[in-house]
Amino acid sequence: MDELPEYAERVLQVAELIPPGRVMTYGDVAEWLGEAGPRQVGRVMALYGGGVPWWRVVRSDGVLLPGHELRALDRYRAEGTPLRGASRAAEGHLPRLDMKRARWDGVGAQSDEAHI
């Protein structure tokens, strides 16, 4: 198997640090790493994120990942991730993440893992 780019490895390490029931946005991950931006984090997750808790790295608006909504929703419910009820106008009546309650700021990550 080909070796992952260094930046991709760091992004995936951050995804693995996010506790069950919590999420970080693509921008949060980029900020936590101190480099690149949300689009680069999203690209890493799209290409390499299948082996890590990908459902914990999300859009800032709390909308579930298009094409993976039901798989992610099952995981959020199993982990007790805070959700907001869907409005009747929402496509498929899917809930959103309650970002105020679900967002994780990295506090509590072990000091040797902080800012990978």
Number of strands: 4
Q: Specify the number of helices.
A: 5
List the uncertain runs: none
Share of residues in helices? 25-40%
What amount of the residues lies in strands? Answer: 5-15%
Mean pLDDT across all residues, rounded? 89
How does the helix and strand content classify structurally?
mainly alpha
Instruction: Describe the sheet with the most strands.
Output: 2 strands, parallel
- What Rg, in angstroms, do the CA atoms define? 14 Å
Q: Give the CA-based shape.
A: globular
Instruction: Record the strand order, biggest sheet.
Output: 1-2
Distance between the termini: 23 Å
Written as H for each helix and E for each strand, in order along the chain, the element string is HEHHEHEEH
List key phrases describing it.
116 residues; mainly alpha; two-stranded parallel sheet; two-stranded antiparallel sheet; 5 helices; 4 strands; 40% helix; globular
Textual characterization of the structure:
There is one protein chain. The chain has 116 residues and is mostly helical. Helices cover 40% and strands 7% of the residues. It has a two-stranded parallel ribbon. Strands 3-4 form a two-stranded antiparallel ribbon. The mean pLDDT is 89.
